[in-house]
Specification:
CATH superfamily of the largest domain: predicted glycosyltransferase like domains
CATH class of the largest domain: Mainly Beta
Distance between the termini: 41 Å
Order of helices and strands: EEEEEEHEEHEHEHEEHEEEE
Shape: elongated
Number of strands: 16
CATH topology of the largest domain: Thrombin, subunit H
CATH architecture of the largest domain: Beta Barrel
Helix content: 10-25%
Number of helices: 5
Length: about 300
């Protein structure tokens, strides 16, 4: 697998990723002073390019986070890395980084199901009653007539009349509101796409290969709270090692929270021998998995 980037094109290709509104919970995992912190939020828009969300936390453009969300009709959550591209008040735009083929397939499946469901929902219109006629007519559905009570049967019937002009104004207002909301949503996503740079693929190395390249290794401290509670196990981290051998970023995958925090703090200071891509004879970033074992005895 090569990390060489493709030659620059004379004309920047247009992005044709469709954006789809969605309302599901989303969790963002960000490192705060080397400690992973889960930030709950709400997903508002989704595409193969990225995700729009409302998060009650301050994030900076360029910040790397882990994204986890569950799509309707899918039992497996979508887990991916992303970079913050903008944040306006509580709204933020996140661009996926290194989205796998399986994750893309899950998003496409959800888009297909949600599009089909929206297309199958019928549009119901209220009854249309002529103002200048005693006979009520309608486009669809039954005529709505106010029946008099039994004790007032002698009085003439009163019909609920909906004027064509009032119906037209109502439909026009709905269309204008929908159009304005779509325009704001489209503009936000266009701004996100304009700010997204082209990302080079990151090589992945096996844990065994990177373990042999460790130059400086700081052993993690066993948390006293975990020792007292008798907690032991293995903290598994997804890591990106920079071209100079330093740890660029970490993302927890599994393990008890107390042990994961201690492992993250220790691994953050590790130093590796730079990984050289043989195809270009140059040191490059590499992604790997690091497992730190904690045992009481």
């Amino acid at each position: 697998m090569s990390a060489a980037t493709a030659p620059a094109l004379e004309k920047k290709p247009q992005r044709n990723f469709a954006r789809h509104p969605i309302n599901v919970p989303v969790d963002l995992i960000a490192l705060r002073s080397g400690v992973p912190e889960t930030l709950p939020g709400r997903c508002t828009d989704l595409s193969e390019l990225g995700v729009g969300a409302i998060v009650a936390a301050e994030m900076a453009p360029g910040q790397l986070v882990a994204v986890e969300l569950r799509l309707p009709n899918l039992g497996v959550p979508v887990r991916a890395r992303a970079v913050v591209r903008y944040q306006s008040r509580l709204h933020c735009g996140l661009e996926f980084v290194g989205l796998s083929t399986e994750q893309r397939a899950m998003i496409r499946y959800w888009v297909h199901r949600s599009t089909a469901q929206r297309a199958s929902v019928p549009i119901l219109l209220p009854p249309i009653v002529k103002e200048d006629s005693d006979v009520a007519t309608q486009a669809e559905g039954p005529v709505v007539v106010a029946e008099p009570a039994a004790e007032t049967a002698a009085k003439p019937k009163r019909r609920i009349r909906i004027g064509r002009r009032g119906l037209f104004v109502l439909i026009l207002c709905v269309l204008v509101a929908a159009g304005l909301g779509w325009w704001q949503w489209q503009r936000a996503w266009n701004e996100l796409e304009e700010r997204v740079p082209e990302q080079a693929a990151v090589l992945r190395a096996s844990p065994e290969t990177m373990e042999q390249r460790i130059v400086t290794k700081t052993e993690p401290t066993y948390p006293e709270a975990a020792r007292t509670a008798g907690i032991e196990g293995t903290a598994v981290l997804d890591a990106v090692i920079a071209a100079d051998g330093s740890v660029k970023r970490l993302r927890p995958i599994s393990g008890p929270d107390l042990l994961v925090q201690s492992a993250t703090q220790a691994v953050q200071s590790w130093k590796f021998e730079p990984y050289v891509d043989s195809s270009i004879s140059k040191a490059v970033e590499v992604e790997t998995t690091i497992a730190v074992e904690f045992r009481l005895h």
